[in-house]
Amino acid sequence: MKVSSAATRRSRRLLASIATLAALGAACTTGTGTGSAGAPPPADAVHVMIASSPEKVELLGDLADEFNGRKVEVGGKPVFVEVEKVSSGTGADLLVNDWPESSGQARPTVFTPAASLWGTVVNERRTEAGKPAVVPKDFRPVMLTPVVIAMPEPMAAALGWPDKPIGWGDVAALAQDPQGWARFGHPEWGPFRLGKTDPHISTSGFNATIAAAYAGAGKLRDLTAADVSSPQVQQFLTQLESSIVHYGDTTLTFLQNLKHADDRGAATAYISAVAVEEVSVIDYNQGDPTNELPPGETGPAPKTKLVSVYPKEGTLWSDNPYFVLDAPWVSPDQAEAARLFGDFVSEPQNQEKVLAYGFRPGNPDVAIGAPIDAEHGADPTQPKTILPVPPGATLTTLLSTWDATRKPARVLLVMDVSGSMGDPAGGGRQTKLELARSAAASSLDLFSDRDEVGLWVFSTELDGQKDYREVVPIGPVSANRELLRQTLAALTPLNGTGLYDTTAAAYDALEAVATPGRITAMVLLTDGRNEDRTNNDLDALVSHIGGEGGGGPVRIFAIAYGRDASVDQLTRITEATNGKMYDSQDPTNITSVFRNVISNF
Fold first, then answer.
1. How far is CA 533 from the centre of its chain?
2. Which residues are within 8 A (CB) of 69 and not within 5 positions of it... i.e. 6 or more apart?
3. β-bridge pairing 317-318 and 143-152
4. CATH classification for the domain delimited by 408-598, as one of 3.30.70.330, 3.40.50.2000, 3.40.50.410, 3.40.50.300
5. Dist. CA 260–CA 256, nearest whole Å
6. Where are the domains positioned within the chain?
7. pLDDT at 4 over 50
């Protein structure tokens, strides 16, 4: 299979779009991680700004407060460490672009993404742009967690776990088997269903894709761009991706939906496996599928335990590197101060703290203990084989290859054009509808030409007694893109909000054309709640679209747009189909939210 130029364009668009997300939605992706109530640094301080991926902001913030209290000095000046939350992909893209002031974030002294592969990507993309590298090759890990194939325990056991090694080859074979789980004596489980996040955005999705490429090439090291481009690897990846239920920007979507299905006693009806980090399996089994509880606290345990399958072909660490940047904006004093804080983070008593977060210590001298254990779905003796991060050229080729091998999508955009969509957005001069139209139009570039997209609009009594109207039939994006843009630009606000009957009708239309070879989904945007009194039964709607454990062929991804949007109604609708509700109650964030939604396809 040849990687198309369209796929390459999509890869570059997605990578470049992360910078747009940072500029347009910085409030959604950043925050202060220190516990010092935002206290400013002393006027003469050596200021160390750390751009940290979200999972360790709280830990590093607490350590920064303690370190700042020690009054450490460099060059006779006090050191002040501050931690800011920046997602790995966002930080990588900002570094490629010299961390522009438009990001609204201070330039970092230290970059600590979830995995070192992001540093490799940064340097490769800077080299391609004729810029010097800024991320050092040598680093210390703050903490570690391997990428695993997480499975409901009964499903893993059916494959021979824990006695039989299981890997990506087994997953790819099962994904292609027309008998599905009937091959293993469980026809009631249906076909094999895999969850995996978008590797352009998510570290676990990127690491899983790398590991799968190694497996397809039959290698344990020295994976090259030529390997990735080979028919053998591309066929393997295509087989694997064929079982995807949908992609996404975070694995928490899969785990939250699995928990909802588990609550209904239908964990095996939702998903067969999901590529996540080991720490997420631990969180899930501790009753914290969305990683919201404070360290050490637990919630209700799931009925069906999730277990970590460590791929027999090998896996990669999410190694949380501590990169002291070799960038022109980092002074020698700042670099020295950053190294001193890095030493502090690596001290054994501080490394023991990472266990409370479900991670393995980055310092090899610190012993692994609970919750890295069988009780929580983990095995401290695994993984047996660690795969090295490939060179930068291999990684960028792999992203383009994934664009060509990923499962295509069939998506229906369902846009609210009720009267309230004509209201001003966030005090600005544009209306909510104008911003939403622009965001939806720009998101069309994130679809590949292999995807299919259509457009409905809804209000009340929009087409006779119907609250909805099809304005662009579902068809190939290659043919529909300009028509969709033109149609979106012409939308105007009208009457009330006929949410329920529109959702039911759109679901039925998608269900009628759903096929196993495509992700079939609805993107539902509304700024209100159902106002059609002739169809006002939410329970009936949920029952209609839900099925057993939400195991139907259509996923609904809803956007709660503006402060009057009914988050409760949309949450129930999306949970019924194992989709996700996205919060855009600040309408000015709609562009970044739309892009996150499209990452599911």
1. 37
2. none
3. antiparallel
4. 3.40.50.410
5. 6
6. 408-598
7. no
Strand 452-463 to 409-416 pairing: parallel
C-alpha–C-alpha distance, residues 597 and 247, integer Å: 10
Identify the weakest region by mean pLDDT among 150-159, 309-318, 384-393, 417-426: 417-426
Q: Is 486 exposed, middle or buried (0-12, 13-18, 19+ CB in 10 A)?
A: exposed
Question: Burial level of 437, CB count in 10 A (0-12/13-18/19+)?
Answer: buried
Nearest alpha carbon to residue 233 among 217, 211, 210, 209: 217
Per-residue pLDDT band at 41 (split at 50, 70, 90): confident
SS3 labels along 397-410:
HHHHHHHHHCCCEE
> 560 φ, ψ to 5°?
-80, 105
d(CA 152, CA 159): 11
Q: Which two three-digit tokens encode residue 327?
A: 């960038």
Give the torsion sign (CA, 220, 226, 228, 232).
negative
Q: How far is CA 573 from CA 169, 570, 576, 581, in A?
A: 35, 5, 5, 9
Q: Which pLDDT score, from 0 to 100, does residue 268 have? A: 93
Amino acid 163: pLDDT: 96
3-state secondary structure of 447: coil
Which tens digits make up the pLDDT trace of 513-550?
999 999 999 999 999 999 988 888 999 999 999 865 55
- The answer to whether 475 and 487 are in contact (CB under 8 A) is no
Q: What is the dihedral angle through the alpha carbons of 34, 37, 40, 46, rounded to the nearest 10 degrees?
A: -20
Stated as kind and residue range, the H or E segment containing 198 is none
How far, in Å, CA of 245 to CA of 192, rounded?
10
Which pLDDT band, with edges at 50, 70 and 90, does 235 fall under?
Answer: very high
List of E strands, 243-285: 273-277
Rounded-to-integer distance, Cα 580 and Cα 577, Å? 9
pLDDT-derived band at 427 (thresholds 50, 70, 90) equals: confident
Do you find a cis peptide bond into 78, omega within 30 degrees of 0?
no
CB atoms inside a 10 Å sphere around CB 184: 17
The amino acid that residue 351 corresponds to is: Q
Instruction: Decide: 67 and 344 in contact? Cβ < 8 Å.
Output: yes
What's the rounded Cα separation, in Å, for the pair 413 and 420? Answer: 19
Backbone angles phi, psi at 453, to 5 degrees: -140, 140
Residues 6+ apart with CB under 8 A from 70: none
Residue with tokens 């990687």: 3
Find the largest Cα–Cα distance for the chain: 77
553 Cβ partners below 8 Å, 6+ apart? Answer: 510, 511, 514, 520
Instruction: Give the side-chain half-sphere CA count within 13 A for 293.
Output: 18
Mean pLDDT of 231-257: 94
Token representation of residue 138: 């040598």
Q: Which residue's structure tokens are 């791929």?
A: 311
Say what percent of the chain tops pLDDT 90: 83
